[in-house]
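Hi W., the adenosine-5'-diphosphate complex you wanted:
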Amino acid sequence: MKSAIYPGTFDPMTYGHLDIIKRAANIFDELIVGVLDNKEKTPLFSADVRVNILKEATKDLPNVKVESFGGLLSDYCKSKGIYVVVRGLRAVTDFEYELQMSQINRKLSDNKLDTVYFNTSLKYSYLSSSSVKQIAQFGGDLTDFVPDFVADMLLEKFDQKN
Ligand code: ADP
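Structure:
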């Protein structure tokens, strides 16, 4: 069985992420979406909430599993025995960072870990979690960016903050 891990912060998941998940789930027998629980960052949503959002959005994809992880990606992959990492590329600007990360992960895993990249679908090439948060902060329309239940959670979050 060929498995892969799609790691990320997903704060929150957008249609851009979901598109990559669906396409990777078509190629791999099993896809684990790994939600990074980084205690040094202060995400808008807790790791548990980010995991639940992804679980709800992928509930019709039987070969997709969502879980959170902390620490090094290479250690997480080792613990699962999975050595294929999926990442998305939106623009050349993503490339430098992604290349560096994949080389570091390869080094840390004794050359076991490989990263495969999915080019963004053009309609999501501008989409990022941070732009979605900015739009939500000012009450903008999120219809084309995130599922409705995520839009509601974002608006509620910013309502609480104001
Ligand atoms: P990071 O893991 O760098 O904190 P994210 O959680 O936002 O960032 O993204 C996880 C992965 O999904 C990254 O590989 C990122 O490039 C990719 N990604 C984010 N948004 C999109 C999009 N709109 N289209 C394709 N890939 C995307």
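The longest helix spans residues 92-108.

W.
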